[in-house]
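Hi, here's the filled form for the chain we discussed.

Project: internal
Contact: R.S.
Residues: 165
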Amino acid sequence: MTYKDRIIQKKYQCEYYSKNKNKLKKCHAKWRFNNKDKVRMYKERDLASGMNTIYGKKYRLKHKEYHKKRKQLYVRRMKKILVAGYGGKCECCGEKNLEFLALDHRYGDGAKDRKENKRRGTSLHKYVIDLGFPRRYRILCHNCNMALGFYGYCPHKRRKKWIVK
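And the returned structure, exactly as it came back:
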């Protein structure tokens, strides 16, 4: 096949795919369902050769903005689910703004938890969601969380007011 013929063939394939996209997707899904062993074998082969990781890395570099936006949406969606699962507001002061809220370890064992589970950020959020929102975590705003960490109490719960002279 000559170079010119390959270009014509590729153009035809692209046109055919765009016209029959849904039909082809159903056909491919059916094949994958009926050939699970082959699909698993191909995945293992590609992972062993590093083909998938190399291709994926190149693809992500080429489409950097798209993946950045997609990850931001995923992180935000996970945080919304997490905050909603714990009541949607700061347990101490009632702050509802999503950007100000954070996951807090209720018993102050955050360092121990991070060391054992090796989870931070969104992976910790997903872990907590999968566990069904356990009682050992809670939602606090960053101000309350930092005050608890530094001073051992939150100013919202303190009885005496600060006197500024």
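Let me know if anything looks off before we file it.
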